[in-house]
Amino acid sequence: MVANGPSASPVHKAASSESANGTNDSTNGSTSSNGHTAPASKPKLACFEHDREEVTRLLIQSLTDLGYEGAAASLSQESGYDLESPAVAAFRHAILQGQWTEAEELLLGGSTEEGGVSINGNGLALQEDVDQDVMRFWIRQQKFLELLEKQDTGKALMVIRSELTPLNQDTSKLHFLSSLLMCDNNYDLMRRAEWDGANGESRNHLLSELSKRISPSVMLPERRLAILLQQVKRNQISLCLYHNTAASPSLYQDHVCDRNDFPKTSFIELAEHAGEVWLVVFSNNGKRLASCGADGVVMIYEVPSFAVLHTLAEHDSGICALAWSPDDSMIVTCSQDKRARLWTAETGELLHAMSSFQEPVSSCVWAPDGKSFVTGHLDRGVGITQWDTSGKMLSEWGAAHRVQDIALAPDASRLVAADDKTTVFVYNFKTHELEYTIDMPARMGSVSITQNSRYLLVNMLDGEARLLDLDTPDDVLRKFKSYTPDAIQFIIRSTLGGANESFVAIGSESGHIYIWHKEYGQLVEEINGHGGFSCNSISWNPVDPKMFASAGDDSKVKM
Amino acid sequence: MGLSYNEYLTGTIIYGCKNCKTHLSNHEDIISRNFRGQHGKAYLFSTVVNTISGEPSERNMTTGRHVVRDISCRQCKKTVGWKYDRAYENSEKYKEGKFILEAELLCKVT
């Protein structure tokens, strides 16, 4: 049997040896505590509808994971259940100690005598449809790499020839491993093999990969109870329609968000603008709010007092769009006066006016490093240009189409531009190359990309918004049909927001605000925000998910 | 209302407002070139874009009585022609819902 516990194993795996030893002489141990019966006569209390053994073993594992190893050992003693059988403990030990031959035998059975260790057995129960040779390959690959690390190329070569090659696995992988024989030093080896050495995490990693193929009844998957609880939480959140908090729900009670906590009533109205308000945007830190519109003026408000800090009034005509720099220190504004302008957000001072175009500048986004920004224009031939913060044009992107709105993926991989008709152009942000185009069924109002850079939300002027996967743009993931407008002429923008970006908020010509659940495509709320006046844009406070701002033709910004 | 950009046409020849070059109609949408307006030659178009219409009024024209409304450029607000709401003569009914743009107030834009 196993000689001694795996001293080198990390905390959350250390229970194996103790529990394995513990049960053998458990009769003495448990009687010493006050009046507990011996495990032989376990009380058969109902364990609800769960299997007693499963629950007990889960508890032992999670006690160990939490660091209560004594409690885990005594639970194991009292119940008579082991977290793992001695064979599993031995296998774990063998892998972590680098005893590869034993590990293979323990895992896959067979009896060979080598190096004085003799093991007979049928190996551990595996998952169905597992290729044993694959598992062998992994073990031998680790052995090979460790030999290389020890500079023992001779033995390593033997392993390749007589142990790895006969398994008939992926030949390109084999070639790659052979090529590692040429590595000059260990640093080079680890870098090329993406492997962190015998003293790194590599053995644990190997064990973790192997254990996924072992039947879970024999070897419990890692951190099983924590994963189960996580699933419960996620499931409860997903069933919670009004879920709008970033905090993880308590396990003590079933989670449900109260509808009354969902933001749906306006608590403040800002009537600073002299004309229609077309866009509101919270700063990235949620401490400022900017609005702009037909009067050609940008208002910057302090949050949460909503006092006006600055009024930016240089544009000669309506302002279509604005964008906060990543650190909120600057703002770019785009106007129908055919120019973009750059301002400091703190003082409201105009830094630069970009050179003028033939047609309105419609949209802008900042590069994530804050050193440059990109504007979209309705000019044909110069749809997209990139500028630095001194107002110098860095490049024209060669976009021959007109651009009505642009969005940049937060990971700076792709830039998406909507033209003035029905085509979405997807560019590589770094190379400026056009990757592909998407045809939409109607004219568009806005494009936006989710925080994970994966999904694209396109709002169309026919009252429908669509969520697309940028990796597989041909499939429409979800459609949010809010209303049918009288005319498809006026730009209504949609936005993503709320806790975990769970919601899609869309304004409408009638002034109603439609809030959809992004994942479930369900209408969560319909709010009569601007009573008869068009609601043009919504911005969700990135820090406080219970607050969003809406802008309307009634010259008002509402919270 | 709300934010609204001018519509951009895609025809090979586009007529725009002479004052501000805003697109008004495609060459292909001309129904007849045989019209006259206050400034001389005028064309009848089936559709126009980026215009705002005024109040309807009854006018006696060379071809009879019509209910028309002036149309002006949405961008610079200059009058560019008129729209026929109603024609009283049966022979002129085809003009209903169509638009006149005066050649003198147009320019070709690319």
From TrEMBL, chain A:
The keyword Repeat applies. WD repeats lie at residues 270-311, 312-353. It holds the Pfam family LisH_WDR26. It comes from the Eukaryota. Keywords: Repeat, WD repeat. This is WD domain-containing protein. The lineage of its organism: Eukaryota, Fungi, Dikarya, Ascomycota, Pezizomycotina. Residues 1-42 are annotated as: Disordered. InterPro entries: CTLH_C, TPR1-like_2nd, WD40/YVTN_repeat-like_dom_sf, WD40_repeat_dom_sf, WD40_rpt, WD_repeat-ST_regulator. It comes from Calycina marina. The keyword DNA repair does not apply. Residues 84-155 form the CTLH domain. GO terms for cellular component: GID complex. SMART domains: WD40 (SM00320). Residues 21-37 have a biased composition (Low complexity). GO terms for biological process: proteasome-mediated ubiquitin-dependent protein catabolic process.
Automatic annotation (TrEMBL), chain B:
Residues 13-110 form the Yippee domain. InterPro entries: Yippee, Yippee/Mis18/Cereblon, Yippee_fam. Keywords: Metal-binding, Zinc. One of its GO terms (molecular function) is metal ion binding. The keyword Zinc applies. The keyword Metal-binding applies. Belongs to the yippee family. This is Protein yippee-like.
